[in-house]
Every structure is written in structure tokens, then in C-alpha cells.
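Re: that backbone. C-alpha cells:
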């Protein structure tokens, strides 16, 4: 029986390749998550923000940290004790710099770790990440509602379903059209919704006023890049030229191996002509059929999440 519990707060930081940031402290052999022990009267959230800033030079935004829950495992460095860790999830591009107690940092593939891991990572958290890797999704969709009322039902169902499954929604930050409908449904069901919107659209008064968090950027390019940084997967609802731009930008990057994240088309009836055209382009030799096959097509949130979490990344085009 462990003689005592060691309470810590830590963060699971994941990059676009699906790798997780791990650190090894000076004088120890096993890698663990960034974080540490709480100071007096300090919350778990405040503790992990402080620790990561002190030890890695990374400023975490509290609004972007997703609570994962509390995990218990045998302590890696203190014999006879268990570590009890409050974990947060953070999907973003960061550049850690080892400082204070940290001897080295390493990006680790949870499925094929290349370093020695603490029991918390090896036995508890990494198996969960492998089984359910998708915790934040980018939702691409129209700033109008279109003529088919079925599309509004799809937006409502997606937003509500993501909230019910505890999956964070990242989208373009607007209050109008299907994008606003999906955000409203997610918020109404207790979900977390983060918007990323260019300043000119804020000036045009279409920014959603009730989001969990709203980031304002300068350009549409920055919007797409920031959304990509924050998510584990992409889901496309019906939309127009902007939605197609976002879809093909993410899909091309996937083909080139710039990220290893699944892409889904939600609403098979709407997307059928697009899929048909892509198959035609594959037949004509302009697209690999394997890349067309990587696109997920789903009509329900349950079907969608099962497919997203079981998806395997294709071999990059130029590999």
C-alpha cells in the first residue's frame, strides 16, 4: 500500500503530428508530462500554467486547456507513493525550452514511444489517447444557412453531439448561418466553443458574443492556421466557397504529411457531388484514390466520432 499520495497538475500537449510533449527532470530517468505540485491555496489550473511557464517558457491560455480528469498511478520518482494527477489537454504548436528542473524535452508518439515513460503515461494516459485521440475538432461550414432546412438540423446535431461527448468545438467565430447554429447548439448543451475570427469580420459585427473564448487574428490565412493548431480533427458541414477552401487546405496538408489529423464530411447527401467529383479526379489520375478514401463521410455524431477515433493516417504523397 502506498504510504502517501503526491498531488500534481500536468498538461498533455499534442502537436499536429499527434505527438505528445514529455519532459525528463534532472536526476531522473523517466519522462513525464509537464507540470508539478500545487503550491498553497493554488488551483490545479493555476498550478499547471505556472509550472509550464517556469520550466518550459510556454504561456498557456487557460481558455484553451481542456480538463481530462484525475488519474492515479505509481509514482515514478518517489518509492512507496502514488501520484494523483489532475490533467489538462492542450492541442497547439509550441516550442519548449528546458529550464529550472527540466533536463530535456521530447515529442513522443503515444503508439510507439521512443523514451522510457513514467507509469502514469505508460499505463494510464497513453492507452486512452490511442483509443480516443480526438478531443477538439475544427468545424468548417457556411456563414449562411442555405435553402435546405436539413442542413440546419445537421448543424444543430453536430454542435449538440460534440458537447454531449465532451469534444471541444473550434470554428470561425461567427454568429450567423450554419456556423452560428452549430456554435449555439454546442453552447446550449454545455459544450466548449472557441472561435477564431479576423478583425475585419469583428468590425462587421458578425462575431459571436457568447463563446467560451474568442481569438481575433489579422487575416483569413492566420484564422485557418490557428484553427489547425488547436484541433485533432476537421469536420465539414455544408457550406460554400469558404468551406471548400478550408476543406481542401486541410486535405492537401494531410496529403503532404504536414499533419496527421482526420477530415470528415458531415451530411452525406450534401457532400455526395463533391465525393463524386473527387473520385472522377482520381480516375483521371490527378488524385490518389487512397487519399479520397481517407475522407470520412458521416450522418450522425456517434458514427462520426467512431470513425474519427479509429482513423489511420495515410502515407504522405511524396514519401
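Recovered sequence:
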Amino acid at each position: 500500500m502506498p504510504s502517501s499520495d503526491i498531488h500534481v497538475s500536468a498538461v498533455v500537449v499534442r502537436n499536429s503530428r499527434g505527438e505528445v510533449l514529455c519532459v525528463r527532470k534532472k536526476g531522473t530517468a523517466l519522462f513525464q508530462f509537464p507540470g508539478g505540485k500545487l503550491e498553497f491555496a493554488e488551483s490545479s489550473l493555476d498550478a499547471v500554467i505556472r509550472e509550464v511557464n517556469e520550466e518550459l517558457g510556454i504561456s498557456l491560455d487557460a481558455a484553451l486547456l481542456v480538463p481530462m480528469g484525475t488519474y492515479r498511478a505509481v509514482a515514478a520518482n518517489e518509492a512507496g507513493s502514488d501520484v494523483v494527477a489532475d490533467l489538462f489537454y492542450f492541442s497547439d504548436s509550441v516550442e519548449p525550452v528546458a529550464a529550472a528542473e527540466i533536463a530535456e524535452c521530447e515529442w513522443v508518439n503515444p503508439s510507439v514511444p521512443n523514451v522510457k515513460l513514467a507509469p502514469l503515461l505508460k499505463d494510464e494516459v497513453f492507452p486512452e489517447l490511442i483509443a480516443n485521440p480526438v478531443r477538439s475538432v475544427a468545424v468548417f461550414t457556411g456563414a449562411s444557412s442555405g435553402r435546405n432546412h436539413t442542413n440546419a438540423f445537421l448543424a444543430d446535431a453536430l454542435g449538440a453531439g460534440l458537447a454531449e461527448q465532451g469534444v471541444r468545438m473550434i470554428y470561425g467565430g461567427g454568429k450567423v448561418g450554419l456556423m452560428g447554429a452549430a456554435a449555439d447548439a454546442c453552447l446550449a448543451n454545455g459544450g466548449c466553443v472557441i472561435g477564431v475570427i479576423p478583425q475585419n469580420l469583428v468590425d462587421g459585427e458578425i462575431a459571436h458574443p457568447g463563446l467560451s473564448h474568442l481569438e481575433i487574428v489579422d487575416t483569413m490565412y492566420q484564422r485557418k492556421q490557428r484553427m489547425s493548431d488547436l484541433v485533432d480533427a476537421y469536420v465539414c458541414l455544408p457550406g460554400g466557397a469558404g468551406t471548400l477552401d478550408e476543406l481542401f487546405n486541410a486535405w492537401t496538408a494531410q496529403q503532404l504529411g504536414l499533419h496527421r489529423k482526420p477530415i470528415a464530411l458531415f451530411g452525406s447527401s450534401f457532400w455526395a457531388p463533391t465525393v463524386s467529383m473527387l473520385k472522377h479526379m482520381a480516375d483521371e489520375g490527378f488524385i490518389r484514390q487512397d487519399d479520397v478514401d481517407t475522407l470520412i463521410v458521416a450522418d450522425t455524431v456517434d458514427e462520426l466520432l467512431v470513425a474519427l477515433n479509429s482513423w489511420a493516417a495515410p502515407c504522405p504523397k511524396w514519401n
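The mean pLDDT is 93. The CA atoms of residues 250 and 300 lie 22 Å apart.
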